[in-house]
């Protein structure tokens, strides 16, 4: 009798290779760690952002497609040289707000603008150093991370469902009053904040005069 753990019969791709499918989540983490370690060693300012940053703050891993870092536009050339010297492939895409790197089979976006907002030294100075799968690196603060998500909302892109788990998990770490002030004149972010109130994720805003 064949063992229940024998796997697929010979003749299937999996049967021939006898290798498990790659772990996409771990591959993204490995790529993030490699890039962060290189930037740290070169003393270049940066911060992890996006879904991997949310994971670093305690949100369950649900990576969208790659690892994202924010860097200063004026450091783009130095970042490119540093990564290429470490054997990490870098290319300049048609978009003028980022460069792209490739490691462990995964794309890494190195961003100069977060939802049309320039990356500044002030923004990077607020980053928190956190462990990401054993490697410590600067991670965008919870409030700045949520602000970048709100800035990305528009009439053409308004996926509240993707941002809601981040808001639920990090609600105690986020300065919601600051976000209300920043986004009160933007319909989509303001609608999301109202949704959070109705779902009792955050406290209702105080009534105005």
From TrEMBL:
Q: Which domain of life is it from?
A: Bacteria
Q: Which residues cross the membrane?
A: none
Record's signal peptide = none
Q: Which Pfam families match?
A: NTP_transf_5
Q: Which InterPro entries match?
A: NT_sf (IPR043519), NTP_transf_5 (IPR039498)
Residues of the region (Disordered) are 1-22
What name appears for this protein in its UniProt entry?
Nucleotidyltransferase
This chain's source organism reads Streptomyces agglomeratus
């Amino acid at each position: 009798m064949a063992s229940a753990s024998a796997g697929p019969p010979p003749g299937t791709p999996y049967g021939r290779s006898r290798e498990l499918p790659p772990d996409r989540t771990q591959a993204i983490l490995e790529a993030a760690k490699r890039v962060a370690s290189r930037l740290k060693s070169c003393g270049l300012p940066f911060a992890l952002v996006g879904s991997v940053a949310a994971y670093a703050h305690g949100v369950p891993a649900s990576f969208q497609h790659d690892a994202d870092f924010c860097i200063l536009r004026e450091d783009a050339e130095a970042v490119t040289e540093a990564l290429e010297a470490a054997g990490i492939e870098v290319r300049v895409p048609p978009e003028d707000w980022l460069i792209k790197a490739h490691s462990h089979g995964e794309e890494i976006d190195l961003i100069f603008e977060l939802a049309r907002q320039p990356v500044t030294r002030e923004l990077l100075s607020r980053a928190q150093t956190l462990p990401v799968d054993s490697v410590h690196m600067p991670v965008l603060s919870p409030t700045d991370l949520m602000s970048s998500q709100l800035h990305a909302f528009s009439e053409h892109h308004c996926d509240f469902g993707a941002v809601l788990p981040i808001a639920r998990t990090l609600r105690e770490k986020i300065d919601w009053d600051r976000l209300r002030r920043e986004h009160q004149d933007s319909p989509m972010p303001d609608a999301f904040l109202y949704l959070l109130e109705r779902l009792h994720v955050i406290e209702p805003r105080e009534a105005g005069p």
